[in-house]
Specification:
Number of helices: 16
Order of helices and strands: EEEEHHEEHHHHHEHEEHHEEHHHHHHE
Structural class: alpha+beta
Strand order of the largest sheet: 1-2-3-7-4-6-5
Number of strands: 12
Largest sheet: 7 strands, mixed
Radius of gyration: 23 Å
Strand content: 15-25%
């Protein structure tokens, strides 16, 4: 079956094709420089894991560089480097993706190598035993030894009651300690198939040439039956949740998160766009409300930020985090943040604030389009989340149409205490001379 969709102008055309074996191929032509980025996105991330094997999606990402029959361990990266390119991978809650950035005439090499490890990965017990040690060390460095990361991890485990987003992407340490090579083999067999993957290529390429190469290298890989994905709904939160996290740290830290909707029907939904504007009203630069009021004017915080991601396979969260200024408590800071949010809920936002945030969004979109990598990245994120490329193409137009009243309504409806979970870092004494360990072999870029 061949489905093709052309979106936008000739310069920014997006071609979207599905091969007979189910591999989706998306091409973003950009002819400003003779380079390209190739990304293979598997629709399998930490949300697809089971209790007892959390972190296996990320572990498999590591093992994908440990070789096939024809490309032994370490050879993948050497061949890409020898061709003047660079490669890496990343695992998230919704997906795992692998990429190469190279001059345009090296695209066949990138496809050949990716197709080979999509079908022929060899997971040896001895190499797995070494790699799992690398992953555990990575967890110690990036989570266990980072107080704010511990707070985030514990708050997610609290805010989500049932949904797998409550589990950390890198996995619980106990699961990593007991993980086996067979767990990784099972994961690979379950999800690494062309009909569960999307190839995204952006750069100085011709769509027809890319599709022909995709047929040549990926086409012979047969589709496989995929496991049934059962609904994993998160029950509505029915009251505020609150935790204290005691870990060695220099400063207290506050993280607040509210359950919020994400983009499902890109043509009809309005709230996710309003929440993106709201995050921009609250933070992003010195003129934003939290920064202006709490850091500059009242000096009750040394840093604040608000964040919201409208695109994901699972449920969404709107977040605010902050670090109290010296002499101020997390409780004082939380009350100050609540007061700023209440101002939005009660009084709304000004047209000047709305215009400022929209200008920032448009500027950010322009800057991101300047990067081939992020052009491909955005396409991969959208389609893996189940959204069409058209949703990305019209994102800025949708944000332009958001009104101040819609932002106020979104704040009133979603930033309610019954949807709120709060984590407060209670700093414990730090050990003198403690330094994070190195993580040899670490390669992921969360």
């Amino acid at each position: 079956m061949l489905l093709a969709l052309l979106v936008g102008s000739a310069q920014a055309a997006v071609t979207d094709v599905t091969l007979d074996n189910g591999l989706r191929v998306i091409v973003q032509e950009d002819h400003r420089a003779p380079v390209m980025v190739s990304q293979v996105w598997y629709r399998a991330g930490s949300m697809d894991e089971f209790n007892g094997t959390t972190g296996v999606a990320h572990v498999l990402e590591h093992m994908m560089f440990r070789g096939t029959k024809d490309v032994p361990s370490g050879e993948f990266s050497k061949r890409i480097a020898a061709a003047g390119g660079r490669e890496n991978a990343f695992t998230n809650r919704d997906h795992t993706a692998y990429f190469e950035q190279m001059q345009k005439d090296r695209l066949p090499l990138a496809m050949q190598l990716e197709a080979d490890r999509m079908a022929n990965l060899v997971i040896r017990d001895d190499l797995f035993a070494k790699e799992i040690q690398v992953v555990m060390e990575e967890r110690r460095l990036r989570t266990d030894d980072q107080p704010q990361s511990v707070v985030y991890e514990r708050l997610m485990a609290t805010a989500y009651q049932d949904h797998p987003y409550r589990r950390p992407i890198i996995g619980w340490m106990d699961d990593l300690k007991h993980m086996t090579a067979q767990d990784a083999r099972d994961w690979y067999a379950r999800w690494y198939a062309p009909n569960n993957a999307t190839l995204v290529v952006a750069g100085d390429v011709k769509a027809d040439d890319v599709i022909a190469l995709a047929r040549r290298y990926f086409g012979p890989i047969p589709a496989r039956p995929l496991p049934e994905r059962k609904p994993q709904s998160e029950p509505a939160q029915i009251g505020e949740k609150r935790i204290a996290v005691k870990v060695p740290a220099k400063l207290p830290y506050l993280l607040m998160t509210w359950h919020a909707p994400v983009l499902r029907d890109w043509q009809q939904d309005t709230t996710p766009y309003a929440l993106q504007i709201l995050a921009g009203v609250l933070s992003g630069n010195d003129s934003a409300r939290l920064q202006s009021a709490l850091v500059k004017r009242r000096q009750i915080a040394v840093s604040t930020s608000a964040g919201y991601d409208a695109v994901s396979r699972g449920p969404g969260m709107f977040m605010v985090d902050a670090t109290p200024a010296p002499g101020k408590s997390a409780a004082e800071l939380e009350q100050a943040i609540r007061a700023e949010l209440e101002r939005v809920r009660h009084d709304g936002i000004s047209e000047a604030e709305l215009a400022r945030v929209k200008a920032q969004v448009i500027a950010s979109d322009v800057y991101q389009r300047d990067s081939l990598f992020y052009q491909a990245m955005q396409l991969g994120e959208y389609v893996t989340a189940g959204l069409p490329p058209a949703a990305l193409e019209h994102r800025v137009d949708k944000l332009r149409k958001v009104t101040a009243a819609e932002v106020q309504a979104a704040a009133r409806q979603w930033l309610q205490d019954d949807r709120l979970s709060v984590a407060v870092l209670d700093p414990q004494p730090m050990q003198a001379g403690a330094h994070p360990a190195a993580i040899p072999g670490a390669r992921d870029v969360h």
